[in-house]
């Protein structure tokens, strides 16, 4: 069965897609490499690990040499020195690692600059490799309540700000967590220097409906799997009536994921409670200060004083195609962006058996309410739960686009004030599906059968955001070359294809009624969209070129950026970036880009500290000013000669 | 007792979760007006330091679970109302404080408050002390802070009848006690007491087989650069490979404050209530480990070595280490210097389980040995496999005829002082024969009845246990026994009980005493014995101990005792001089008043 996996709060998902341009020589082979070359040589690589700021030696750093099918690791000595012996000729990656530090690659002169490979000729001895490490930053502060008393054991999150589809993007899934101690102090450490950070104290009300049996004890079996999933994401044990962490009576359970409120809410749900705050004192991402950190910098005084706000009760019913929807997750977020970007909903609840939901304590202000009922294969529920380095849990939602069960979506805006909202009913509608087939254009015999499933497809929101929290993967190709997406909510989409494991074939375009929908968005309403054609070519459009200094010398390890001429395509281009490509030059200054969609492009020799978030207008304008304009066409290799000092 | 224990643990877990997740109960709107309990939460024993915004929970003794929850107001006051009549444990918690139950010192089980229908109880004071703090810096051998580590606190607790360092609530530890980027750690909210503090190296430091560049490497590289031939000294390929395989090298391992991998060499840190210790630094540097080299002998032909499960238990720290066994029955593992028990066992194939042995996965063979391991040496241990003994168990009435009307009888068969690799708890259905497999060893046998309603029965007790027709006391010696043993458990429906009043030791906020009843016969002082019982007097100062088998007992009252210490023969011995002898026959209902510290 062609299940798709959509990861919940999966930090690696976006990372791998947004920063796909990893030099080929760095990508490791799937098997663990050997610790020695098959044919040893007499080459030597020797060097020092130093602190990038002070130039001081860094002892006890792990220095890894890889390349040529083997990998060796040593620890630097007290003077930061390392050496690798008996090396055959080849191209090597040499990296220093130390907890709490960044970078450490060959040629990295700033935390932002890129590492490069180290070419080693036969019997060559290189003695002067300097690997620079920079200590990551830290943010510290206090969390106190309205009386100035420390809030103890409260979670504080630092959320990195990067770019997505040409716009700033707060990566809630990559948050770094800390907790306040008994003095209310927290320390968010090991913060990367390559992005800005915003800091938040999350406060999320998680309520679970509890039908009472009239004797003050609830009946078992009333915890929806969605609630369990939500708790597991927070690293908490599952709810079950009678379990240690649960109070089971009344009409709902309420877990406060964050600072506990100053008072217990009464039965009407009207209470004072703390809401999620963003430093310095905002309700949402938009009001947050972006903190950038220099190497080793500790930004102190990022202090929160939380003040309780009046909460209100919000309730209603969620209806699907066949009647009330039971056990679905209902999310309430302070603004629509916050749902996908910060990962910090204001409140989360679940419908009961009658489709009824209750937010006993919802914060005031403009709110967005959303529901996604994704068909889950029977018996699978939700899959893997795993911890990640940052402490945020991941879970896998298994979805089958070829299933006939619809994905149901609902969304509503509501302005909450002092008055309880007793009837905000939502109707969840089936999303529209996108389907079509593959078309191979070329002289080779096209692949068939299972090989076709190696083509991966995604239908992406133009803003690159997930369809819903935790839900990215949306389409799949079967062995007949047909593809189908899950039901999608109305909106603007681009359709992307990739075929990295399909030898000799590259996606050349996605067409609907002769129109390109790979780079140009489609507007999806309620109606399904069939007859989409994904075109794969064995003679893709490609680029070959060189980078030289103004005096004509080849520049090895230079970074080349290629991007569309049409500035309208610099935003809202979806999550994947087939038309924004970067490459590194070889020792002779040459580079190739084996495949990209046909069109008009700028090619520029980029500065060495080109950030990974270079696909945004401010950076692109700068690059365009020194770029060379080229046109690439299917079946043709376009040549371009670039110079580092600008001009052509 | 089982029930009280389970709920006590439940509360601790709730308190541990409290730092990040506060379960709230929205009060039911249409509950009939019920009883209520009101009072104050104070950080001082005399009630003078109110604690605002502390969680107060009541838990019904009869219904279990957490009944209802509230927060104290700014004056530390609380009211929990709409409660059905019943007995309740009242508990308080707040992050940074030591969770407490009413009528008990921090960390001890509370005494229930009995509420009549509609009763309005007031004036309940909960003493919620501010927790103590232990903090410090983890540094490497050169004095540099170690950032890739976590810190755990341990306390000596009874584990399977012996005292071992036991980690505090790992749930909290995982979230809160990581070394920060300056090597610092801080553990707060601690009860006054004695702690061992240990630092664990993180994955970065644990990485094995990484060669440390040394001066010889540098000299060799410099010779090569000068055009000479570098002799393949250190860091040659072979050396790197050797480093990866070496097991006697100094390695990063768990290190106790101030810097020892050996648990019984740990400096114990004592904190008073609310005290802050900020000087508990730890040196986390590679330490010399010892090694256990084991050989399993007497492996029957046809027994696949994959089925040999070896467990290495540090006798001074709870938890065990696994190790894989080679096809030749040999195994090897680096461990810190200390006392260990190494055991091997096999189960019938197809029924491997990590849990308690059941008759579904009978033991086949096993062996165990205890040994001392010293740093820098390999300790060789031989484990000759022995076949398990087969026990055919059945339950009858005390007159030897008929079947007692019980849902089941829980038989705990434990080797005192040993890790749980020996014995376990087994469920025997009256009227049926249950087959148990046990390794040859000396076991303590304890019997608990479960009534037809599924509740622990106090109206039934074990009258006698016989093995192959011979009456056994509380211990079962299988070392020289035949391979198959017929065990009969006779249950009586007329157990004895003792009740009475306790004087002394009570007073405002003073915890009620512990009444400990134990057999006069010292050979019956075994871990988890059904003849060793503990009770707390209720608010009126009266206690009841029921479901007792007939026999000669001693009765003592003490002001405070650590959980499970009453199974410790050394502790019981200290109680003997002041204890009151009580001889009970079946069906006796004896009244015996007590004074704390001894006397009637």
What does this structure look like?
The complex is a heterodimer of chains A (648) and B (600). With 648 residues, chain A is mainly β. Chain A is built from four helices and 48 strands. A seven-stranded mixed beta sheet of chain A has the order 17-16-25-24-27-30-32. A six-stranded mixed beta sheet of chain A has the order 35-36-33-41-38-39, with no helix packed on it. With 600 residues, chain B is mostly beta strands. Chain B is 9% helix and 43% strand. Chain B is flat. Chain B starts with a helix and ends in a 5-residue tail after the last strand. Classes of the chains: A mainly beta (648), B mainly beta (600). Chains A and B meet through strand 4, strand 5, strand 9, strand 14 and strand 17 of A and helix 1, strand 1, strand 4, strand 13 and strand 15 of B.
User: Quick one: overall form of chain A?
Assistant: globular
Total number of strands of chain B: 44
Distance between the termini of chain A: 53 Å
Q: Assembly type of the shown chains?
A: heterodimer
Largest interface: A-B, 77 and 72 residues
Helix content of chain B: under 10%
DSSP strand (E) fraction of chain A?
A: 35-45%
Question: What is this entry, summarized?
Answer:
Chain A is built from 4 helices and 48 strands.
Write out key terms for the chains shown.
heterodimer; A: 648 residues; mainly beta; six-stranded mixed sheet; 4 helices; disordered N terminus; B: 600 residues; five-stranded antiparallel sheet; 6 helices; 43% strand
Topology summary:
The complex is a heterodimer of chains A (648) and B (600).
Chain A: E1 4-8, H1 11-18, E2 43-51, E3 62-67, E4 70-75, E5 81-87, E6 90-97, E7 101-106, E8 118-120, E9 125-135, E10 137-144, E11 155-164, E12 167-170, E13 176-179, E14 185-191, E15 196-201, E16 204-209, H2 225-233, E17 252-257, E18 271-273, E19 277-278, E20 298-299, E21 304-305, E22 309-320, E23 323-324, E24 329-333, H3 336-341, E25 347-350, E26 356-362, E27 365-373, E28 382-387, E29 393-399, E30 408-416, E31 426-427, E32 429-430, E33 434-441, E34 456-461, E35 475-477, E36 482-485, E37 491-498, E38 506-512, E39 515-516, E40 522-524, E41 529-537, E42 542-548, E43 559-564, E44 581-584, E45 590-593, E46 599-606, H4 617-625, E47 628-632, E48 637-643
Parallel strand pairs in A: 2-9, 10-20, 10-21, 16-25, 22-31, 33-41, 42-48
Antiparallel strand pairs in A: 1-29, 2-5, 3-4, 3-6, 6-8, 7-9, 10-14, 11-12, 11-13, 11-15, 15-19, 16-17, 18-22, 22-23, 22-26, 24-25, 24-27, 27-30, 28-29, 30-32, 33-36, 34-37, 35-36, 37-40, 38-39, 38-41, 42-45, 43-44, 43-46, 46-47
Chain B: H1 2-17, E1 21-25, E2 35-42, E3 55-60, E4 68-71, E5 77-83, E6 86-93, E7 100-101, E8 113-115, E9 120-127, E10 132-139, E11 149-159, E12 162-167, H2 170-176, E13 184-190, E14 193-201, H3 203-206, E15 211-212, H4 215-225, H5 237-245, E16 255-256, E17 269-271, E18 276-277, E19 282-283, E20 290-297, E21 309-314, E22 320-323, E23 330-335, E24 338-347, E25 363-373, E26 378-384, E27 386-387, E28 389-397, E29 408-414, E30 423-428, E31 434-438, E32 442-450, E33 461-467, E34 470-472, E35 475-477, E36 484-492, E37 496-503, E38 514-519, E39 533-535, E40 542-548, E41 551-558, H6 569-575, E42 580-584, E43 589-591, E44 594-595
Parallel strand pairs in B: 2-9, 10-18, 10-19, 20-26, 28-36, 37-43, 37-44
Antiparallel strand pairs in B: 2-5, 3-4, 3-6, 6-7, 6-8, 10-13, 11-12, 11-14, 14-16, 14-17, 20-23, 21-22, 21-24, 24-25, 25-27, 28-31, 29-30, 29-32, 32-35, 33-34, 33-36, 37-40, 38-39, 38-41, 41-42
């Amino acid at each position: 069965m062609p299940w798709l996996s959509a990861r919940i709060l999966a930090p690696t998902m976006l990372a791998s897609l947004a920063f796909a341009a990893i030099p080929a020589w760095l990508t490791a082979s799937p098997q663990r490499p050997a610790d020695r070359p098959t044919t040893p040589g007499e080459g030597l690589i020797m060097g020092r690990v130093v602190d990038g700021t002070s130039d001081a030696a860094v002892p006890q750093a792990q220095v890894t040499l890889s390349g040529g099918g083997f990998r060796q690791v040593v620890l630097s000595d007290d003077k930061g020195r390392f050496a690798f012996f008996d090396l055959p000729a080849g191209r090597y990656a040499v990296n220093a690692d130390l907890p709490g530090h960044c970078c450490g690659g060959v040629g990295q002169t700033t935390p932002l600059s890129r590492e490069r490979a180290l070419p080693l000729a036969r019997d060559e001895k290189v003695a002067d490799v300097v690997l620079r490490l920079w200590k990551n930053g830290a943010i510290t502060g206090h969390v106190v309540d309205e009386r100035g008393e420390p809030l103890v054991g409260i979670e504080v999150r630092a959320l990195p700000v990067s770019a997505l589809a040409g716009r700033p993007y707060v990566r809630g899934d990559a948050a770094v967590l800390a907790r306040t101690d008994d003095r209310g102090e927290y320390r968010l450490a090991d913060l990367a220097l390559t992005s800005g950070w915003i800091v938040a104290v999350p406060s999320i009300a998680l309520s679970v409906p509890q039908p009472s049996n009239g004797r003050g004890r609830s009946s078992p079996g009333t915890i929806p799997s969605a609630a369990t999933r939500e708790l597991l994401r927070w690293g908490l044990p599952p709810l079950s009536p009678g379990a240690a962490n649960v109070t089971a009576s009344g009409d709902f359970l309420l877990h406060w994921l964050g600072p506990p409120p100053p008072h217990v809410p009464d039965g009407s749900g009207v209470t004072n409670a703390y809401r999620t705050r963003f430093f310095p004192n905002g309700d949402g991402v938009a009001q947050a200060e972006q903190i950038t950190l220099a190497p080793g910098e500790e930004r102190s005084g990022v202090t929160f004083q939380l003040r309780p706000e009046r909460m209100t009760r919000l309730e209603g019913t969620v209806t699907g195609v066949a009647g009330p929807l039971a056990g679905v997750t209902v999310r309430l977020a302070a603004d629509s962006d916050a749902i996908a970007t910060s990962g910090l909903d204001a409140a989360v609840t679940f419908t009961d058996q009658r489709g009824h939901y209750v937010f006993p304590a919802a914060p005031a202000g403009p709110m967005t309410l959303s529901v996604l009922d994704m068909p889950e294969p029977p018996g699978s529920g939700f899959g893997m739960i795993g911890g990640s380095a940052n402490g945020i849990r991941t879970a896998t939602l298994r979805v089958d686009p070829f299933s006939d069960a619809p994905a149901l979506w609902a969304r509503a805006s509501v302005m909450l004030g002092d008055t309880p909202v007793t009837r905000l009913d939502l109707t969840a509608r089936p999303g529209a599906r996108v389907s079509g087939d593959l078309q191979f254009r070329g002289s080779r015999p096209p692949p068939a059968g299972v090989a076709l499933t190696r083509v991966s497809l995604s239908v992406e929101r133009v803003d690159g955001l997930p369809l819903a929290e935790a839900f990215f993967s949306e389409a799949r190709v079967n062995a007949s070359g047909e593809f189908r997406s899950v039901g999608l909510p109305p909106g603007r989409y681009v359709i992307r294809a990739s075929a990295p494991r399909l030898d000799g074939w590259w996606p050349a375009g996605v067409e609907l009624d002769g129109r390109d929908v790979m780079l140009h968005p489609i507007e999806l309403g309620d109606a399904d969209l069939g007859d989409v054609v994904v075109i794969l070519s064995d003679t893709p459009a490609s680029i070959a070129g060189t980078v030289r200094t103004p005096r004509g010398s080849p520049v090895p390890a230079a970074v080349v950026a290629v991007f569309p001429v049409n500035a309208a395509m610099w935003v809202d281009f979806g999550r994947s970036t087939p038309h924004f490509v970067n490459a590194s030059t070889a020792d002779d200054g040459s580079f190739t880009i084996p495949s990209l969609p046909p069109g008009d492009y700028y090619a520029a020799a980029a500065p060495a500290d080109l950030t990974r978030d270079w696909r945004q207008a401010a950076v692109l304008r700068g690059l365009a000013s020194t770029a060379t304009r080229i046109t690439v066409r299917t079946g043709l290799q376009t040549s371009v000669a670039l110079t580092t000092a600008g001009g052509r | 007792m089982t029930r009280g224990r389970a709920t006590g643990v439940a509360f601790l877990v709730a308190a541990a979760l409290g730092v990040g997740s506060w379960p709230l109960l929205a009060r039911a709107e249409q509950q009939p007006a019920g009883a209520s309990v009101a009072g104050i939460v104070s950080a001082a024993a005399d009630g003078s330091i109110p604690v605002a915004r502390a969680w107060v929970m009541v838990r019904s003794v009869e219904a279990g679970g957490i009944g209802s929850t509230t927060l104290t107001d700014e004056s530390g006051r609380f009211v929990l109302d709409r409660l059905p009549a019943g007995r309740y444990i009242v508990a308080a918690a707040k992050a940074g404080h030591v969770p407490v139950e009413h009528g008990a010192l921090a960390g001890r089980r509370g005494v229930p408050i009995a509420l009549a229908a509609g009763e309005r109880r007031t004036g309940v004071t909960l003493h919620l002390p501010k927790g103590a703090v232990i903090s410090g810096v983890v540094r490497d051998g050169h004095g540099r802070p170690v950032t890739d580590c976590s810190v755990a606190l341990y306390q000596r607790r009874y584990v399977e009848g012996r005292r071992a360092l036991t980690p505090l609530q790992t749930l909290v530890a995982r979230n809160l006690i990581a070394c920060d980027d300056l090597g610092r750690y801080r553990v707060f909210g601690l009860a006054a007491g004695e702690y061992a503090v240990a630092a664990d190296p993180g994955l970065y430091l644990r990485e094995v087989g990484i060669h440390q560049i040394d001066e010889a490497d540098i000299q060799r590289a410099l010779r090569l650069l000068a055009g000479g031939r570098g002799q393949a000294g250190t860091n040659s390929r072979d050396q790197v490979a050797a480093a990866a395989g070496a097991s006697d090298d100094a390695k990063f391992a768990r290190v106790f404050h101030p810097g020892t991998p050996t648990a019984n060499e740990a400096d114990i840190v004592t904190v008073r209530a609310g005290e802050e210790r900020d000087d508990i630094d730890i040196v986390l540097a590679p330490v010399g480990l010892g090694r256990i080299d084991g050989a399993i002998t007497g492996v029957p032909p046809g027994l696949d070595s994959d089925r040999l499960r070896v467990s290495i238990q540090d006798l001074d720290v709870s938890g065990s280490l696994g190790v894989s066994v080679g096809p030749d029955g040999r195994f090897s593992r680096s461990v810190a210097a200390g006392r260990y028990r190494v055991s091997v066992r096999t189960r019938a194939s197809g029924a491997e389980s990590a849990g308690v042995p059941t008759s579904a996965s009978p033991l086949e063979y096993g062996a165990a040995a205890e040994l001392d391991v010293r740093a820098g040496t390999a300790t060789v241990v031989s484990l000759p496999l022995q076949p398990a003994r087969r026990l055919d168990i059945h339950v009858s009435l005390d007159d030897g005829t008929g079947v007692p009307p019980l849902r089941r009888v829980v038989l705990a068969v434990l080797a005192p002082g040993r890790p749980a690799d020996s014995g376990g708890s087994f469920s025997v259905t009256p009227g049926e024969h249950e087959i148990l497999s046990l390794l040859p060893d000396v076991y303590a046998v304890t019997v608990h009845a479960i009534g037809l309603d599924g509740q622990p029965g106090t109206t039934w007790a074990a009258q006698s246990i016989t093995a192959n027709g011979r009456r056994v006391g509380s211990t079962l010696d299988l070392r020289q026994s035949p391979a198959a043993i017929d065990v009969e458990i006779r249950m009586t429906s007329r157990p004895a009980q003792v009740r009475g009043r306790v004087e002394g030791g009570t007073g405002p906020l003073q915890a009620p005493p512990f009444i400990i009843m134990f057999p006069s016969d010292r050979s019956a002082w075994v871990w988890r014995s059904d003849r060793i019982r503990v009770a707390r007097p209720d608010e009126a100062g009266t206690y009841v101990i029921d479901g007792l088998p007939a026999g000669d007992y001693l009765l003592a009252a003490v002001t405070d005792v650590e959980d499970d210490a009453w199974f410790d023969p050394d502790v019981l011995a200290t109680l003997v001089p002041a204890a009151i002898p009580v001889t009970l026959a079946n069906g006796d209902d004896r009244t015996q008043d007590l004074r704390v510290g001894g006397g009637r």
